[in-house]
Recover the amino acids of this structure.
């Protein structure tokens, strides 16, 4: 805490930073899903399966390494990626069903 800052002021400053980071996360997820939607449409048009287990394993391993390097709990990061991957596969299956 800055010596000139009251605990209440610091709390407000930190919460403002958290709000900005949350907004950035939402925007990044939206961009990610725009890309994965394009992948899903391409897979559906080409007759590829919605899921790619080899890629998922590589991505999970990569994310675990990045998490460890960044000081983020890799188990938590893997849980988050698991939720994202499950939603991506669900979307890819929907594109495949439309094709």
């Amino acid at each position: 805490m800055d010596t000139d800052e009251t605990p209440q002021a610091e709390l407000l400053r930190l919460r403002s930073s958290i709000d900005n980071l949350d907004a950035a996360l939402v925007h990044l997820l939206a961009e990610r899903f725009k890309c994965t939607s394009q992948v899903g449409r391409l897979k559906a048009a080409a007759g590829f399966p919605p899921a790619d287990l080899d890629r998922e394993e590589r991505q999970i391993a990569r994310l675990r390494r990045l998490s460890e390097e960044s000081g983020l709990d890799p188990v938590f990061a893997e849980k988050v990626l698991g939720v994202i991957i499950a939603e991506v596969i669900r979307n890819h299956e929907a594109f495949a069903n439309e094709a």
